[in-house]
């Protein structure tokens, strides 16, 4: 009797899964995507690749920040305090970006992912430009 119940439950479950696919044209594992919970491997791979690229950029920014700190002696005295404050701000921003990509990002679907990437890229480019221009603006002449 137990075996018969298990057999019927298994057949019912398989038939229900098959019906969902044929009736609605979707596979059971993609149902979660409809409800805003993406489960596709492509998105996961895209995030991992993007995260690795951004971590490399963040690491490059750290190198630039360290280099800027060593060049303090070449900065005009009247601009030294401002220079050091800017370096600290940029270092903080770099750390915030690291936290944002590594810790804070939660997978919330394709549209949110695209929005996140756009905003993150903007912030990263802004930081990179600030790092590039900081030393030029404060050098002794």
Question: Can you tag this structure with a few keywords?
Answer:
141 residues, mainly alpha, 2 domains, 5 helices
Describe, in plain words, how this protein is organized in 3D.
- By secondary structure, the chain is mostly helical.
- It folds into two domains: 1-35, no CATH class; 39-138.
- The protein has five helices and no strands.
- The protein starts with a helix and ends with a helix.
- 8% of the residues are buried.
- Mean pLDDT is 77; it is low at 17-39.
Structural class by SSE content? mainly alpha
Order of helices and strands: HHHHH
The number of strands is 0
Q: CA-to-CA gap between the ends?
A: 93 Å
Q: Percent of residues in beta strands? A: under 5%
- Unreliable spans are 17-39
The main pleated sheet reads as:
none
The average pLDDT score comes to 77
What number of structural domains do the residues give? 2
Helix proportion: over 70%
Q: What's the gyration radius in Å? A: 26 Å
Tell me, what's the shape? rod-shaped
- Helix segment count? 5
Summarize the topology:
Blueprint: H1 2-24, H2 31-34, H3 41-70, H4 80-104, H5 110-138
Question: Short description, anyone?
Answer:
Helix content is 79%, strand content 0%.
């Amino acid at each position: 009797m137990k075996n018969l119940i298990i057999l019927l439950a298994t057949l019912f479950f398989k038939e229900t899964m098959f019906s969902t696919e044929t009736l609605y044209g979707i596979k059971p594992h993609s149902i979660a995507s409809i409800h805003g919970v993406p489960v596709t491997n492509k998105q996961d791979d895209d995030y991992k690749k993007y995260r690795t690229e951004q971590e490399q950029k963040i690491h490059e920014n750290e190198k630039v920040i360290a280099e800027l700190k060593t060049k303090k002696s070449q900065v005009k005295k009247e601009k030294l305090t401002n220079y050091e404050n800017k370096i600290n701000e940029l270092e903080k921003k770099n750390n915030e970006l690291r936290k944002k990509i590594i810790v804070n990002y939660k997978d919330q679907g394709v549209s949110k992912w695209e929005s996140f990437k756009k905003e993150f890229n903007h912030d990263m480019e802004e930081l990179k430009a600030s790092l590039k221009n900081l030393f030029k603006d404060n050098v002794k002449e």
